[in-house]
Amino acid sequence: MSVQEQAILDRVNADNWAVLYRCRWSNPDAEREVPQIAGLLESDDFLITNEALRALFRIGTPAASAAPVVAKLTRSKHAMTKQLAVLTLGQIAHEFPEVCVEPLALALDDPLCCRDALRSLAFIGPDAIGGLKYVLPLLTNSDAKIRKDAVKAASAIDAEQPEVAEMIRKATTDRSKIVREAASKCLRRAENR
User: Which residue ranges make up each domain of the chain?
Assistant: First the structure.
């Protein structure tokens, strides 16, 4: 770790991340700090990269300028870096679907990242329509928790699309109670719209 990287991390982590929380609520602070933190994402040391991802996650949406670099890290060879990148991308870029939907959708093929990516896509909602084709196959996944999250994501993205509506109706008879309950809630929500 270089002296400069250490200095940035020390400042960011001081006083229970006070700098990061200031960035969350102050655009001038975010504009000053986010580029420095984002620069750490290029480090060869995955531990530094992971710390930078955690910092950006804490800042939230004001760190959206770092989203393109974070998106690249969703394909990292380091499992923890990849998972942190998926979580961070959903946290900082959910208002910018053109940056985050595709990387989140592509992360659905990783069992470690799948549920986090599904929750982020559900949070993005209708703007994540480009990710729907990646979500639908997960409605038949062998893991009930993934099926449940896929039902929620598909419903949040476009519950009125005939294919989605049919798959959600089918999920109300799933062998797993958590999937059936999630599908039933999604159907009730769609009917009340």
Answer: 1-93, 101-193
Q: Are 154 and 125 in contact (CB under 8 A)?
A: no
Nearest 5 degrees, angle CA 48-CA 119-CA 33? 35
Please identify which residue in the block is written with the tokens 């959910």.
94
Mark out the alpha helices in the chain (DSSP H runs): 3-25, 27-39, 46-59, 67-73, 79-93, 97-106, 114-124, 132-135, 144-158, 162-171, 177-191
- The rounded distance, in Å, linking the Cα atoms of 170 and 160 is 14
101-193: CATH topology: Leucine-rich Repeat Variant (1.25.10)
Using CB atoms within 10 Å of the CB of residue 192, give its burial: 0 to 12 exposed, 13 to 18 middle, 19+ buried: exposed
Q: What is the pLDDT of residues 145-171, one digit of tens each?
A: 999 999 999 999 998 889 999 999 999
pLDDT, tens only, 13-67 = 766 678 888 888 888 989 999 999 999 999 989 999 999 999 999 999 999 999 9
For residues 50 and 79, is the Cβ–Cβ distance under 8 A? no
Q: Write the CATH number of the domain with boundaries 1-93.
A: 1.25.10.10
What's this model's pTM, rounded to 2 decimal places? 0.87
